[in-house]
Every structure is written in C-alpha cells, then in structure tokens.
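Figure 6 in text form: structure in, sequence out.
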C-alpha cells in the first residue's frame, strides 16, 4: 500500500485541469487488482532500495502466567515442590514472567484488498482485508523467564529465580496458510502524505500461531542450529537455612529441560503469538503506514533525473481508484550541479498546444470506460505535455545529436515533440530540422552558412523490451508521414516553418523525402527503467488517445 501512495502517484486531479497530471494511475477496486498493485508497489520499492516498512524492531509487554496455566507436568511439579519445601515460599501463588527485551521481525509477504474505499480529496479512507505470510521473528537479546513469588507480608511479586534463553529466531514459513486480519486506514494528502491507522482487528493471529505451532521453526540465532537446553542458563540460587549456606545449581535440571524443550518453546511461541495482537501486529502496520511519508519518489539513472510527486487521489467511479502525480525532469548535468533541486532549476517549457478542459475530461472518461469493460484492470496514463518534456530532456542531454549529424541534420528551434490527437498504437513525432547539406554540387545551394529548415512528421512505435531482465522505454521511428506538400508549406498550427531554396522547393522536398527514409527504424529514445524490473511492462498494451494522453494498460 505504501507504494501506491508514493511511487505510483503519477497523475493529477480531475478538477485541477489547469495543471494536468503528468501521470495518472487508475485501477479497478477488486481483490485481484488491489493485490496486484500492492505486490508490484512493494517490488518497485525494493528495486528502488526504499524501505517498504515490512521489517522493524519492537518490544512486547511482559507475559505473566501462573504455574497452573503452564502445565501439570512432573517437571513443573518438581520445581513447585522445590520452591515450597527448600526455599520456604508459597509456590501456590508463584507466577512465571516471560520477558523479551527486544524483538525484530521481517514479513515476507503482505497483501491487502480494499473492502471499502471512500475518497474526498484530500482525504481517503480504506477498509481492507490484509494477509501476512512468512514471518521471521528474531530475539536478538534472547528470552528471560522469571519465577516470581509473592512476599509473605506485602504480597508483592519478587523475582526469585531467572532463566535466560540465548538469542533465537522463530520462523513462520511462507508455505503455511496466511495469517489474516482487517485494517482501516485514513490518508491525508498535503505537502507530505499523512497516514493514520483508525482501526485494526488482529484477534485471529493468536489462534493462527497456536494452530501452526508445531510447524514453526525455532533456531539459535548465531548458528542457525536447533535450540537445546544448552542455550538455557539458569542462575544458581543461594540459600541460607539455620546458619547453613547452600547453593543449588540447576544444571541437574538440564536433562529434564532438554526432554521438555519442545513444550517450553511452544509456551514461549504461544505467548509471542498473543503479543502479535497488542504489539507486533500494530507495530508492523504502523511501520508500513507511517504517520508521515514524503510524497516524492526520485529516480536517478542515465540519462535523466526524474521525480514524481503525489498531487491528488480521487474515485472517478464507485469501483475505481485514481492517483495523480506531477513529474519533475532534469538532465544529469543539472542534477550534478543542483542535486534534487535541479527540477526547480529546470524551467517547464510551454506546451506545444492548449488542450481544452472538456478534452481532458474525455481522456479520463476513456480510461474509466476501458477499465469498466474488463479489457484492463490497471491503467497508467501519461500526458502529452510530460512526454514532450521527456523528449526535450533527451535533446538537452544530447542523445540525438550523433544520430542526426550522420545525415547532416540538426534540430531547429522547436526541436521535437509528439501530438496525441489520434487514436492508435503510438503517437506521431514532429521534428523541426535544419539541413546543412553534404557538399558537392548540393553545397552551392545548401551549406552550413545557408541551411534549410523544414518539418518532418514520423509515425512511431513505443515498446518496453527487456535487456538482461531490465525493461527499457524505447521510442522507434516507423514511417515518414510527411509528403512533399507538407515539407514545402510547413506545419503552421504547431509553429513549424519551411524555409527551402526558392525555385527549388519541389526538388528539395523530394530529396528530403528520399533522405528521411534513413530515419525510419531508428531508436529515437532508449531509457532504462531498472526500478520497474519484474512488474511486467513488456506485457502491457498501449494506445495513443485522441484526447492528449498515452495510455498503458495492464491485464491481470
């Protein structure tokens, strides 16, 4: 869940149409889609080496047990008799105190499905069914068991005898059935995302531990070997009776303790299981849904620095949930100069065109319609503006210079951009180009001092191939769409002029078309996405919307 509220916040509010979300994440509210989203979120957090909150250290309350509650086993009776007859204390009211000074945990898998979700931006309330599967519980300071006997006059319990169990580890294997519970969460979106657990029901956890106690693995922490009586140390007791002093060494009880080792460990594990309800369970949940989390995720990898910040969450349909995120971009050169502030030092360019609010609403309705139809369960939608900022950052990083220079081309003032006004598998790429000629007879009319300027419109393909298991965003040119007339007259609606040699316009336009064939089949952008390793980007299907967005759909 934490990922949903940090990483995948890649869009903006439906109402904030003046500042569109750079990325929208929208999902159906169903068991499968929410589980998938949480699973992939945790995977992305792991890829980004961000703590997912499933590990931690806590303390648990001392557990107090009467001897009768432990067992009527002869071993317990022998201790009872010893305490009563030798030490002259009332063992009938004696109790055992189990103390675990420090406890660490690591949860292998946490899954949750939303049962109820109400969104009124900026407040979101979720009731969910959650499942924990596979838990490692470390006892780095061991376990201390104290025999407490009441003072004959005051009745106050005093520690009489202490036994310590060496640092140990309890493993609940992932092969066991999940431990299930319910949780309620309230999230408030502001500069930082603030979370508050409003309720959790963990009554099922202690019975779960008791049901599987024989399948839970217990070992000594340093060696990993099985726990034996040798890992239990009992302090000697010094007794003075009628002027006679005597020390009782409990090593004589080692064989008895070894014989009953399983029962002793079972008792301790059961008490730890009870403590899940009041300490470990809530501690895990609070660790995951921390009171305050930064709403920004930053990614630094060649050739860009990218950050995504949560801007909104909403519920466009009763059974759909949407996150909105703003994206920040800068070159690595800017990142080295300004660090994370580079996104503030990089001005956001004016959009190529103005997209009307009604068109933006249609874009969101289109995503909702696809999810409602069942064709997809999760959608990620990227705005035309953000794609163009991505292309502009690639140009500023000089990623295209070498490729264009091979054909004596250079980007002119307008650079390159996409326009998402047609439904199809990929957007059209527009290029504003300078051509300085290749010398020879051509150099008389076209050279570095007298370059020509013209537009070029190319069909593209967007894909996410894997390279050594790492997905890449690849934008490939497929086919030149411009004809000679378009090259001669330019594309004025997007500010792309044509400045060809007078009297030779038609001939030069045909020459440009022949030359531009070399640009087909080129990878115009290759952006490694290691943070998305394993989430199945290569299995998605994409569709360029006619409403100013590129939509990527996941079918679970």
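Output sequence:
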């Amino acid at each position: 869940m934490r990922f949903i509220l940090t990483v995948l916040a890649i869009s903006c509010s439906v109402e904030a149409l003046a500042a569109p979300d750079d990325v929208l994440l929208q999902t159906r509210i169903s068991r499968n889609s929410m589980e998938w989203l949480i699973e992939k979120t945790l995977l992305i957090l792991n890829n980004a080496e961000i703590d997912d909150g499933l590990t931690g250290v806590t303390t648990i309350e001392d557990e107090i047990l009467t001897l009768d509650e432990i067992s009527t086993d002869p071993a317990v009776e022998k201790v009872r008799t010893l305490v009563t007859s030798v030490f002259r204390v009332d063992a009938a009211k004696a109790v055992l105190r189990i103390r675990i000074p420090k406890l660490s945990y690591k949860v292998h898998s946490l899954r949750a499905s939303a049962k109820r979700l109400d969104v009124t931006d900026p407040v979101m309330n979720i009731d969910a069914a959650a499942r924990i599967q596979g838990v490692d519980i470390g006892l780095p300071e061991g376990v201390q068991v104290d025999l407490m006997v009441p003072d004959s006059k005051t009745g106050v319990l005093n520690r009489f005898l202490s036994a310590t169990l060496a640092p140990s580890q309890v493993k609940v294997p992932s092969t066991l059935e999940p431990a299930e519970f319910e949780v309620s969460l309230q999230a408030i979106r502001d500069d930082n995302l603030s979370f508050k657990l409003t309720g959790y029901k963990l009554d099922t956890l202690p019975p779960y531990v008791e049901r599987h106690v024989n399948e839970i693995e217990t070992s000594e922490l340093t060696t990993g070997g099985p726990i034996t009586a040798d890992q239990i140390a009992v302090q000697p007791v010094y007794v003075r009776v009628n002027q006679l002093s005597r020390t009782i060494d409990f090593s004589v009880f080692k064989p008895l303790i070894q014989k009953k080792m399983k029962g002793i460990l079972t008792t301790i594990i059961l008490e730890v299981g009870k403590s899940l309800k009041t300490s470990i369970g809530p501690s895990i949940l609070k660790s995951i849904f921390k009171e305050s989390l930064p709403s920004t995720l930053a990614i630094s990898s060649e050739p860009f620095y990218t950050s995504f910040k949560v801007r909104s969450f909403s519920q466009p349909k009763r059974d759909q949930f949407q996150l909105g995120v703003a994206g920040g971009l800068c070159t690595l050169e800017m990142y080295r100069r300004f660090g994370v502030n580079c996104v503030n030092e990089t001005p956001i360019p004016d959009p190529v065109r103005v997209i009307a609010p009604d068109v933006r609403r249609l874009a969101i309705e289109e995503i909702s319609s696809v999810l409602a139809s069942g064709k997809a369960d999760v959608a990620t939608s990227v705005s035309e503006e953000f794609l163009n900022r991505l292309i502009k950052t690639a140009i500023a990083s000089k990623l295209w210079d070498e490729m264009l220079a091979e054909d004596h081309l250079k980007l002119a003032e307008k650079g390159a951009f996409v326009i998402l006004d047609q439904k199809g598998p990929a957007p059209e790429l527009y290029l504003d180009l300078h051509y300085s000629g290749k010398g020879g007879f051509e150099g008389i009319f076209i050279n570095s001092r007298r370059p020509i300027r013209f537009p070029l419109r190319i069909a593209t393909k967007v894909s996410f191939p894997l390279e050594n298991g790492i997905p890449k965003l690849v934008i490939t040119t497929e086919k030149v769409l411009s004809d000679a007339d378009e090259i001669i007259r330019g594309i004025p609606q997007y500010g792309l002029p044509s400045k060809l040699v007078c009297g030779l316009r038609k001939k030069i336009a045909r020459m440009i078309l022949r030359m531009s064939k070399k640009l087909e089949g080129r990878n115009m952008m290759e952006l490694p996405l290691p943070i998305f390793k394993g989430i199945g980007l290569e299995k998605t299907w994409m569709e360029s919307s006619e409403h100013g967005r590129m939509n990527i759909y996941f079918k679970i």
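Caption detail: The longest helix spans residues 261-288.
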